[in-house]
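Bench notes, afternoon.
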Amino acid sequence: LPFLMASLGLLVSAPACAWLLPAPRGAPSLAPWKMFCMVLSDPCQQALMIASTSSTFSNASHLTLVPLKAVVLQMSMSQLGSLFSSCSVCGLVGAVLGGAFADYIGQRAAVLFGGFICVASLGVVASSSSRLGFFAAVALSSFGSSFLE
């Protein structure tokens, strides 16, 4: 519920910012909600919004789910630190491959692919019973999450 409320707050803040900021010179004078709807009608902006929201949810789940599951699997602090370090490397590799994938196949396909990897791997994180499976699922989730950024 807190994540949904944060998303709703972000969605409401966009028209509010558009209303508060002065319009650039020569720009048509539109109501903030109409300007927001005009931006949302662009498919590239829709993909960006979906990717940004998915990335935020992925990061939030990493910060909550991974440490809790690490306690259940009785991982030490150094093992948890190694896990997050390797996730950073997987994210770096995924960002490079995600950019190439978006250029080659398209932005929507890259977002869908990254989102699918993220969701599937986070499902495995929640149900994993071994440290190796947990480690692989978290690393794969970071890889998929970097496609969304």
